[in-house]
Amino acid sequence: MKSLRVAVLMHAELVPPETTEGFTPDEINRWKVEFDVVTTLQNMGHEVHIVPLEDDFAPLRLAMDVFKPHVGFNLLAHFHGAASYESALVGWLELHKLAYTGCNPRGIFVANDKALCKKVFKYHRIRAPRFMVVPRGRVPKLPKGKLDFPMFVKSVSEHASIGISHASIVRDIEQLRERVEFVHRNIGTAALCEEYIEGRELTIAILGNKRLETAPVWEANLDGLPPGAPRIMTSRLKWNLAYQKQVGLETGPAELEPETAARIDQLGKRIYKVLGLSGYARIDMRMDAEGRIWILEANPNPDLCFGEDFAESFERVGYTYPQLLQKLLNLGQRYHAPWMG
After folding, report:
1. How far apart are CA 173 and CA 286, in angstroms?
2. Distance CA 214, CA 184 (A)
3. Does the N terminus or the C terminus of the chain have fewer Cβ atoms within 10 A?
4. Domain 5-101 carries which CATH code?
5. pTM of the predicted model as reported, rounded to 2 decimal places
6. How far is 237 from 154, CA to CA, in rounded Å?
């Protein structure tokens, strides 16, 4: 394996220490992906340069001039605090002809705009919940006969379960108005309001640019949630380790009929292609009691922590964590960006 100069792009507040000693699990959880990626790349023999970014590209420009990286390992998720700028970050890398890991700008733009993504699904006849978008400063008005309660209300552009709680499931117009106003006020984006689909929480992880590889369909077991609580991945459940332990959250390969698993595999690849994704992604979906698959969203550049779902699922098909990171570096270097002609 050739040793590479790798610039690891991360948010300044998430630059990890050299060791996890002395830190609590919750403290480690904040910068675990950054720590795992940096230390693993170093142990693989790559020359790693951490590039902390927040609201200025100066550190990256300096790193490109001095360190001259072969590839950037992209762990950025927002700029100026807005996830909607994630595609612009990657666009900057392409404009400066730096190879990078993860998804291309157009794929990120489409996938991260959840409303636009669902319109693409509808065009391609991919089953997704019916929805409406309520811009900031507006109040929700239900289109007559086109949407039914209960509904699920979330940000139209933020990810990582930001702002999602049990109150995100609304059952009447008053609750809908309250939750839309919450999203507008506390998250600062338009609100996506979609019909809530009860069912099993499934995902499929995908690698590749043109030739795609998939991992086994993965499932989050939410049976340990309190009685009456909606079976959704809230922000608390996603990020609070103590609460995960309390409710016994477990994720792992889904027990599915081979035909169903194959159908999801093909559907995941189809979605990846119609959205124009590259590098790697995770497709989130639900399977209802009738066995129908509903696509919730596509997540370009999902969590790469060692031991978490994406890495764990690909370990089931033979990728160790170092091999997975090397695969991402290879895909980044092989991606044919528009400037290449």
Report:
1. 24
2. 36
3. C
4. 3.40.50
5. 0.93
6. 16
Which tens digits make up the pLDDT trace of 29-88?
999 999 999 999 999 999 999 999 988 899 999 999 999 999 999 999 888 877 778 999
Superfamily of domain 198-334 in CATH is ATP-grasp fold, B domain (3.30.470.20)
Q: Sketch the domain layout of the chain as residue ranges.
A: 5-101, 128-195, 198-334
Closest to 267 (Cα-Cα) out of 256, 283, 251, 253: 283
Closest CA to 106 of 121, 119, 94: 94
Label residues 115-149 b or e (16+ Cβ within 10 Å = b): ebbbebbeeeebebbebbbbeeeeebeeeeeebee
Q: Give me the phi and psi of 191, to 5 degrees please.
A: -105, 135
Identify which of 128, 78, 93, 80 has the alpha carbon closest to the alpha carbon of residue 275.
Answer: 128
For the chain, how big is the Rg over CA atoms in Å?
20
- CATH code linked to domain 128-195: 3.30.1490
Tokens at residue 140, please?
Answer: 């929700």
Say how far apart CA 29 and CA 24 lie, in whole Å.
Answer: 9
State both tokens at 316. Answer: 């089931």
